[in-house]
What does this fold into?
Amino acid sequence: MAETRVLTDHQEIREWAAARMGSPAIRPAAPLIGNNDPVLMLVFDQQSYEDQDQGADRPTDFGRPEIVEWDEWFTLFDERNLGLVVSKEIAGLRESFHQLIAR
It folds into this structure.
């Protein structure tokens, strides 16, 4: 396994995500399957550019992550005392591995 580091600084997390075309997102709580809390996520590439318009034929609670502003994402990140585990930088490689963990 590649070496990792934990990011907690908001600006450093923003820059890491931006370098990989990542956006902050939140998947809504899904009580029917036992998930009572919204899930923080980072989405990348095409997923971060998907149209957020739900349309009349798509329910608003479909469970798809919603792209949010960084301020909203970091509010939950800080409230839950999380850290972002990422691979250490390797010259010439943009690894997008990441995992949110409790600090």
Residues 70-79 form the longest helix (10 residues). Strands lie at 4-7, 22-27, 39-44, 66-67, 82-87, 98-102. Helices lie at 10-18, 70-79. The two ends are 21 Å apart (CA to CA).
